[in-house]
Amino acid sequence: MGTSSTALQKTFAGASIRRSAAVAIIVGTTLNAINQGPELLRGVHPVLWKLVLTYCVPFIVASYGSYAAFRIGETAPANEET
């Protein structure tokens, strides 16, 4: 199996998805509070597409970070000392 294929499998495994989801919830909630907080406090409905994207973007970034780390880890020499 190729390196990218294995890295993708690990990226979409349970632990990686949970980690990316946790990042998305924390960062997305913070960004929504910053970007749409005043509207929410006034009782105005948030802009739905902004709400969704504000959670999707950190999820995608965290998932890509996991993928890149798995990919680098698989191509690093096994006998490399740190």
Please describe what this structure looks like.
It contains 3 helices and no strands. The chain is rod-shaped and about 55 Å long. The model has no long low-confidence stretch (mean pLDDT 88). It has helices spanning 3-11, 14-41, 48-75. The protein has one domain. It is an all-alpha fold and 82 residues long. Helix 1 (3-11) crosses helix 3 (48-75) and helix 2 (14-41) runs antiparallel to helix 3 (48-75).
The total domain count is 1
Oligomer: single chain
Q: What is the arithmetic mean of pLDDT?
A: 88
Measured between the Cα atoms of the first and last residue, the distance is 27 Å
Give the helix level as a range of percent.
over 70%
- The total beta strand count reads 0
Quickly give the structural class: mainly alpha
Radius of gyration: 17 Å
Shape, please? rod-shaped
**Series of secondary-structure elements, N-terminal to C-terminal:** HHH
What's the total helix number?
A: 3
Q: DSSP strand (E) fraction?
A: under 5%
Largest sheet properties: none
User: Poorly predicted ranges (pLDDT <50, ≥5 residues)?
Assistant: none
